[in-house]
Design brief:
- This protein is of the alpha+beta class.
- It has two helices and nine strands.
- It is elongated, with a radius of gyration of 31 Å.
Length: 173
Amino acid sequence: MRPRLRLTWTRFRNFFDQGNLVRFLVSLILAFALWAWVTAQTDPEITRTIPAVPVQEVNLGGSLTIVGPLPTVQLLLAGPRSRIQPLESGTVQVTVDLSDVKQPGTYTRPVHVSVPSEIRVSNVTPTTITVQIERISSQGRGPGSGRAPDVATGTDPPPGSVAVPAASTPRWT
């Protein structure tokens, strides 16, 4: 070895032979622990429960419709306080994928939750929902007719009628 390299290696070995390696490792561990504590204090991890998030259907065929409203789900979210506190209901999307539904019937499907980055979904209640599907009928009244009932009377509109917007309640013409 060259004399200069040998001198450097000797100084390096002497430094760690004198118990400095243990002090170095303890210092490194303490520095990491202090960094982790300070980071947690400035933006601590919190959880938040969102009680009634509406579920939206996606990928349902055009000739099929859902009977009745979809249920809501309760979410338990976790993440940094700076990301969880300003969270708005429109930021979290809960969907049920109905792409494989081709026929009318009752189906149980898993719920999918989409949240912003740095936020984790800790719990979803319920994890699956049951959906009743019917075929949209172009004639007749009732479920699957494709026409909305009259809000004022609670009855189905007459065949061939069209909703006309009004100031207070819709009327059928």
